[in-house]
Design goal:
The complex is a heterodimer of chains A (164) and B (704).
Chain A: E1 4-8, H1 18-26, E2 36-46, E3 49-58, H2 66-70, E4 76-78, E5 84-86, H3 97-100, E6 107-109, E7 114-116, H4 122-126, H5 132-136, E8 142-146, H6 147-162
Chain B: E1 2-7, E2 16-22, E3 25-31, H1 44-47, H2 49-53, E4 63-66, E5 73-76, H3 79-97, E6 102-106, H4 113-123, H5 137-147, E7 152-153, E8 160-164, H6 173-185, E9 189-193, H7 199-202, E10 206-208, H8 215-228, H9 234-240, E11 241-242, H10 244-251, H11 256-263, H12 267-279, E12 283-287, H13 297-310, E13 320-321, H14 329-332, H15 350-353, H16 360-369, E14 377-381, H17 385-388, H18 392-402, E15 405-410, E16 422-425, E17 434-436, E18 449-452, H19 465-475, H20 485-494, H21 502-508, E19 510-511, H22 519-522, E20 540-541, H23 545-549, H24 569-574, E21 577-583, H25 597-602, E22 607-610, H26 612-617, E23 625-629, E24 634-641, E25 649-653, H27 664-669, E26 695-701
Parallel strand pairs in B: 6-14, 8-9, 8-12, 9-10, 11-20, 14-15, 15-16, 21-25, 22-24
Antiparallel strand pairs in B: 1-2, 2-3, 4-5, 4-16, 7-13, 17-18, 18-19, 21-26, 22-25, 23-24, 23-26
Helix pairs in contact in B: 3-19, 4-19, 5-13, 8-11, 8-12, 8-13, 11-12, 16-18
The chains are: A alpha+beta (164), B alpha/beta (704).
């Protein structure tokens, strides 16, 4: 059984924000919930040099999602294929999952009054397509698919770029 | 639901898209994986296309002004009444003040140049009030003077990128941004020259943080290093350049030690960067629009273009290539049917006026002073001059208020449209048949012509600007030279790499000519087919006799910015900080798209970048609302305290207006950095370029 996941390599991100809008459009999200967001860290001095990082943040679909454990109504489940979903019919909007997430990537949707987060574009994945953010990333900084494949792709890319 | 192939028109790139159409409405847009420039990728602007096309804020019907100009009272009218009014007013004003009293303008949005320049030609005016003096014409024109055409960057084959004043991964992204990233990912060296630590600067091998406005001094020091250390391509230089000895003698005093106090870049770092560029082969120069500002653009750009010339990186794979355009520039800019009045264009800028007259400020000055001839009416398309032109409040606004007639065709009620007599609703790029010609863009590789067929019917009563040009001319008894937009597109496609009529071309979607390199050897650059360059000497004009005749410096010289702590120390007591206005958001295109919720959420308000030391000095904290003030005016932006900028410099967001505000003044000017920029001389003698990227200002905290 494949285990799907999504990961980002911040070294490749140029902060263009295409992932954010691709996600908004794909899931028709209102202003408010941001299933993926690029966070700027820095610029700060690191070893006498200015360094700035652009870090795409989204649900990483944990193996043992703490958000699921925190949910009092069991609305959050990890599927067989690794995708962690919030059942919008069960969610009561209590927001217990938001602080439970170690990556702080769960949003609150003001329209539906429910918790809201990346669903790994489950409909696209099931059709064999890449998530909308991955497809539109200008630098190939996002990787999605079977966890083993993702790890290999990132490894390959890193080796090609740095030569080590 | 059907999926149709189309092209995004939210900038001039024309990336291929798949548009999802449901009941005649566009509901989704994604990148077309088969399109050769973007390979399925789209930028945030393109991905928000449905929120543009379906925006409830769009202009829906033609409007005429009631009450005073700018009062905001309108009546809905029919297209016939609107066009009849425009034609009648044009006739009346031309009869009263002469044929040159009516001019036009089209901005950068929704590509129109192939329609609007022809329209103005037939109307009989050379005057098109735009920003060509600070955007693309200096680059193109300096390239023509030096090489006969502009040498574009070939990222695909390069081993070293000299990114001078551009943030192309955010701005002019498709396909140059993608190509740059690909080159960087496969290990090409990256050198960035920028006052700000941009994402590209942060990923560069070397970042030179220069003082704004000193690009020419820095480039001269690079030339000094390359010549002194004999890092140039001696064979290419001796065979194919004109005036090398004079250039060598000229730059001898311009050592890195000379440049250091001017540019603030340490001499060692200048040497290190120049050596990396000159010793990595092939290397390509990518100059951004920043170097097209200031009173010295001819010299600055030429000094930069000498870098690939001296290092033999001209017309070689991975260097700077003299590509064959997919559509001749003269065809695209309708130079074949120039009006007889051409030589009487406003503004005495010989290099600009041979390409695309005129500088916006020259037009506004003519309105205000009537010195050469009166300019009384303007027909505007896709031009938001109140936000986009220099010295908005005290210059552009005053001129607009003095006009006898203004029509504006646009997507939204912009601060400029608010001042019009007639407002016309424009179709979005998805609602009209058009071509994109990124070959005319300075750095698009490969040069191409792209067909962009309509994918949805125009919403409400919006129309294609091209149709409106044809209809206005008909009412004036003039002939556009094409009965329909499609006929005009046929004419253009037939003269291009497409080689077929419009409908036929839409089946191909994309065309470019086969390209070759080292054409100066094979004879592919000159009209006579002989080897060499299409310049007076037949060689790369390091020393330009043409400029000498025009009384422009034949060799580049550093000119201190006219408003700087060095040139105006007295003024700098009141306005101690250097203001640069260059930063561009990845989610906006010039003054457009502040209405789009998905984009506005990402970039909700304009920000001014301030170094922590400077912020502390003025009692400003990150996130504070801050007034920025120059001797011309002020505006308010949000403080972004960052180590990425020099303490002596602040960098403000450009092109902002606030459509949601209650009053016209707030919408147009509250955050508009062009209240502060300068329209007045000194201008570049060749192009009329103004200083928008190196001015003096002060900042102080605003109570919210």
């Amino acid at each position: 059984m494949k285990k799907f996941t999504i990961a980002a390599d911040p070294e490749l991100c140029f902060d263009c924000k295409a992932c954010e809008v691709a996600c908004k459009q794909e899931h028709n999200l209102p202003v408010g919930p941001r299933w993926i967001q690029v966070i700027t860290v820095g610029p700060r001095m690191v070893g006498g040099k200015l360094k700035v990082d652009f870090v795409p943040k989204m649900c990483v679909h944990c193996a043992n999602p703490p958000c699921a454990g925190a949910c009092p109504v069991d609305a959050i489940q990890r599927r067989e294929d690794g995708i962690v979903l919030i059942d919008q019919n069960l969610c009561n909007g209590c927001m217990a999952c938001l602080p439970a997430c170690p990556f702080a990537v769960i949003s609150f949707d003001p329209d539906t009054q429910r918790a809201s987060k990346c669903n790994l574009c489950v409909d696209r994945i099931e059709q064999g397509l890449q998530p909308a953010c991955v497809k539109h990333c200008e630098a190939g900084a996002l990787f999605a698919g079977d966890a083993n494949t993702v790890a290999q792709e990132m490894r390959k890319e890193r080796a090609q770029r740095s030569g080590v | 639901m059907k999926i149709v192939k189309g092209n995004c028109g939210l900038c001039q790139g024309g990336c291929g898209v798949l548009a999802y159409i449901e009941d005649g409405r566009m509901v989704k847009v994604e990148g077309d994986p088969d399109f050769p420039t973007n390979h399925g990728i789209l930028c945030p602007k393109g991905l928000a296309s449905v929120q543009l096309v379906n925006s409830p804020h769009r202009l829906k019907y033609p409007l005429k002004r009631l009450g005073e100009r700018g009062e905001g009272k309108w009546a809905r009218i029919t297209w016939d009444e609107a066009l009849d009014t425009i034609a009648a007013r044009v006739k009346e004003i031309r009869a009263k003040y002469g044929p040159l009293s009516v001019a036009g303008s089209c901005g950068t949005g929704r590509p129109l140049i192939h329609h609007d320049r022809r329209f103005l030609n037939i109307l009989g005016t050379p005057n098109r009030l735009n920003s060509s003096h600070i955007c693309y014409m200096p680059m193109l024109g300096a390239g023509i003077v030096t090489f006969g055409r502009f040498p574009s960057s070939d990222f695909r084959n390069t081993n070293c990128i000299l990114n001078w004043g551009s943030n192309v991964t955010h701005t002019r992204r498709m396909g140059m941004g993608l190509q740059l990233i690909d080159a960087w990912k496969r290990g090409a060296k990256l050198i960035t020259v920028d006052p700000l630590l941009t994402p590209l600067a942060s990923k560069s091998d070397i970042w030179l943080q220069l003082r704004p406005g000193t690009d020419c001094a820095l480039a001269l020091a690079w030339l000094n290093v390359i010549i002194q250390e004999k890092l140039y391509d001696q064979e290419f230089v001796s065979r194919w350049t004109h005036g090398f000895d004079r250039l060598a003698a000229h730059v001898e005093p311009f050592t890195p030690e000379w440049a250091e106090p001017i540019t603030w870049v340490p001499a060692d770092k200048i040497r290190q960067a120049a050596r990396l560029y000159a010793t990595t082969s092939p290397a390509t120069l990518y100059p951004g629009v920043s170097v097209e500002f200031g009173p010295n653009t001819t010299g600055t750009i030429r000094a930069l273009l000498f870098l690939p010339a001296l290092t033999g990186n001209i017309d070689v794979p991975g260097g700077n290539v003299l590509w064959q355009d997919a559509i001749p520039m003269g065809t695209l800019y309708s130079m074949e049917d120039k009006p007889a009045t051409w030589d009487n264009a406003l503004g005495d800028y010989p290099l600009l006026n041979r390409l695309l007259p005129t500088a916006g400020h020259a037009g506004w000055r003519a309105v205000l002073t009537e010195q050469r001839y009166p300019l009384k009416a303007l027909l505007f398309h896709a031009n938001n001059a109140i936000v986009g032109h220099e010295n908005s409040q005290n210059f552009v606004y005053k001129a607009i208020m003095k006009l006898e007639f203004l029509s504006v065709m646009d997507l939204f009620m912009t601060p400029t449209a608010e001042l019009a007599d007639i407002v016309l609703p424009a179709s979005t790029p998805y609602e009209r048949d058009n071509i994109f010609t990124p070959n005319a863009e300075k750095n698009y590789v490969p040069p191409a012509i792209i067909s962009a067929p309509k994918v949805v019917e125009p919403l409400w009563e919006s129309r294609d600007d091209g149709e409106v040009f044809i209809d206005i001319l008909k009412r004036l008894g003039l002939d556009y030279g094409a009965e329909t937009v499609k006929e005009r597109l046929d004419q253009l496609c037939l003269k291009s790499a497409a080689g077929v009529k419009w409908e036929e071309f839409t089946k191909m979607g994309y065309a470019s000519y086969p390209q070759s390199f080292r054409k100066y050897e094979s004879g592919g650059l000159r009209p006579d087919g002989k080897p060499g360059f299409s310049t007076p000497s037949g060689k790369v004009e390091l020393y330009s006799s043409e400029l000498e005749k025009l009384e422009i410096d034949p060799l580049p010289l550093h000119k201190e910015p006219p408003e700087s702590p060095v040139s105006q120390p007295e003024l700098a007591r009141t306005y101690p900080l250097i203001l640069t206005t260059g930063i561009r958001s990845p989610v906006y295109y010039h003054t457009q798209y502040r209405h789009i919720p998905w984009l506005r959420e990402i970039d909700p308000e304009p920000r001014i970048r301030i170094h922590p030391e400077t912020a502390q000095k003025y009692g400003i904290q990150d996130g504070d609302s801050v007034y920025i003030e120059s001797q011309r005016g002020k505006c308010k932006q949000r403080a972004m305290v960052t180590l990425g900028i020099d303490p002596r410099v602040v960098m403000a967001d450009a092109s902002w207006w606030l459509p949601e505000k209650a009053t016209r003044e707030e919408r147009a000017w509250e955050v508009n950095i062009n209240n502060l920029t300068d329209s007045e001389p000194p201008h570049d003698p060749g192009f009329g370029s103004t200083s928008g990227r190196s001015l003096l200002c002060k900042i102080y905290k605003a109570s919210e």
